[in-house]
Write a structure and sequence with these properties.
Layout (H helix, E strand, L loop, with lengths): L2 H15 L2 E2 H8 L3 H13 L3 E4 L2 E4 L10 H5 L3 H12 L7 E5 L3 H8 L7 E5 L2 H7 L5 E5 L3 E3 L4 E3 L4
Parallel strand pairs: 4-5, 5-6
Antiparallel strand pairs: 1-3, 2-3, 7-8
Helix pairs in contact: 2-3, 5-6, 6-7
């Protein structure tokens, strides 16, 4: 199959299925993942598809902006509270440690840390660090990096 035929077939497949992965395309067309990535890059430049992590979707797929922390805080609050309560049962005892990634659910986990248990917490979340900074039994380690305004999380190579 010529490259142009493969690229047309890939664009058609994405249009029909709504998404494809690089791995699946490489297997389907018996080419390397690098070849698939080049095909996808060309199709994206031509405006036929949009590349996403690990694959591609139709160019017309909805692109949603990431909601900020304040907006996400109250979304599915009950679910987040139940997850935090369940997670509390898995937290280590005195002398243990836990890493809390940035997020509104993990922030709720931080809120349910036992106040009588000495625990080491590492986080890349500025809000979680602020919440735990004054807690006597917590040994807090804030992971460094560039702080994203939307998520208030330290990100990048340093993190």
């Amino acid at each position: 199959m010529y490259a142009e035929e493969r690229q047309q077939a890939i664009a058609d497949l994405i249009g029909r299925q709504g998404r494809v992965s690089v791995t699946d395309l490489a297997e389907r067309y018996d080419v390397t993942s690098e070849t698939v990535r080049r095909d996808l890059a060309l199709l994206e430049r031509l405006g036929h598809i949009r590349r996403v992590h690990g694959g591609a979707v139709p160019a017309t797929a909805l692109t949603v902006s990431e909601p900020g922390l304040a907006e996400r805080e109250n979304t599915r609050a009950g679910h987040k509270d139940r997850i935090a309560a369940a997670a509390a049962h898995f937290l280590p005892g005195t002398g243990g440690s836990v890493i809390l990634d940035a997020g509104t659910t993990t922030s709720r986990v931080a809120a349910v840390l036992p106040s009588d248990t000495e625990i080491t917490v590492a986080t890349n979340s500025v809000p979680i660090a602020a919440r735990l900074a004054g807690s006597a039994p917590v040994k807090l380690h804030l992971i460094g990096g560039r702080v994203r305004g939307t998520t208030q999380a330290a990100v990048g190579p340093e993190a």
